[in-house]
Structures are given as C-alpha cells and as structure tokens.
Amino acid sequence: MIRFIDNFKSKLEGIDFETLEQSKYTIYGLSEDLELIYVNPGWVNFAKENGVSDSYMNDKLIGSSVINAIDGEKIKNFYTENYINVLKTKKPWKHEYECSSIQEYRQFHQNTYPLKNGKGLIVTNTLTVNLPMNSQNRKAYDALNKRYVANSGYITQCSNCRCTQRANEIDVWDWVPKWVENIPKNFSHSICPICFDYYWKK
C-alpha cells in the first residue's frame, strides 16, 4: 500500500522519518488542506485491528480528508478548528481522547505539530490508558431497538465514548457493546453531554 506522498520526506525539516516509522503508536501527516499525506506502520496496524478495510487503505487513503473519517459534526468541527489553529499559529496542540473497544477501555494522548515549512502537520497518538472494560464500572446494556431507535428511525451513538442515546430519555447514554462491535446501518453520530463538556468547556 502507499503510505505517503512522493515528497513527504522533504517536508519534515528536522523530524526524523525513521523515528516516525519505528513508533508502535499511530502517527499521520496532514497537508494544509487536512488531507492525509502520511501514515506510519503503527497507524496501519491499529487500523487493521479496528476493522478498517484493506481496500480503503490501498485505494482511498493517501489524499483523503482526515476530517471526513471522523463521525459526528461537533467532533469534526472540533478537530478542524484545532488543526487549522496549529497551521496558523505554528504552535503545537495536545489533548486526550477515548477510543475504546468492547474489551478494552483506551485513552490516547494526541500531539499535533506544525511542519517547520508551514506545509502541514504531524499528528502522534500515544496510548496512555489500556484497561479491561469490565474494570470501568460501565454497565453494559442489551441492543434493544425499542429503547434506542428514535422516531426518525436512527440510533445515535457518541462519537467519542461510543455510548448510545436512549430514544425517550435523551439525556441518558448507555454502553451497548453489540453496537460498538457491529454498528447498524441506521446509526447517526453525535456527542453525549459528558464528552461535550470535555471537548468544549475545558
């Protein structure tokens, strides 16, 4: 698969390419238009472990918008604003986020660095917390359509913590493991109140 654009190494100016390549964590490079221009082997391994298709990685990856790969308008806006701010100010940005699976509660630390020539970004994602999900006191709920399917016909999942909103109790969001593993076609994404507070009120 193609993992970087032809002139990617020339854009680094002081960042060691082999260090990016050898990291076990996910690292990617973005253009000024927030299109992917690089992914390291750690990114590829993480993507495969989390169900990203080989056809996507082979045919549609480099040159695609990283923002389009994010679910939920509020989180899209959050990342867009912060990535663009790094490009404008040339000051690094960091934050913490959750990316859990059914079995594991995972927290990541993301650092975004401007390339010295102003032509893009390097984004690193380091795993900081990795615990069994059953250690988190997060009660698991069954995937019941009558509890979660709204009048619109859609089920809403938080883009960050992946909890599911109750249809008739919109302030209640439950951990539904079945829908974390296999997302139905009638899903939409938003952000739960707790994650909203984290992202927009810090």
Q: Can you give the mean pLDDT? A: 91
Q: How many DSSP-defined strands? A: 9
Q: Assign a percent range to the helix content.
A: 25-40%
Order of helices and strands: HHEEHHHEEEHEEEHEH
- State which percent range the strand residues make up: 25-35%
The biggest beta sheet reads: 5 strands, antiparallel
**What ranges have pLDDT less than 50 throughout 5 or more consecutive residues?**
none
The strand order across the widest sheet is 2-1-5-4-3
Radius of gyration: 18 Å
Tell me the overall shape: elongated
Please, how many helices? Answer: 8
Classify the secondary structure makeup into a structural class: alpha+beta
* CA distance, first residue to last residue: 39 Å
Summarize the structure.
With 202 residues, this protein is an alpha+beta fold. The chain is built from 8 helices and 9 strands.
Give the secondary structure arrangement, pairings included.
Layout lengths: L7 H5 L4 H6 L3 E6 L4 E4 L1 H9 L4 H6 L13 H17 L3 E6 L5 E11 L5 E13 L12 H4 L6 E4 L5 E2 L7 E2 L2 H5 L5 E4 L2 H8 L2
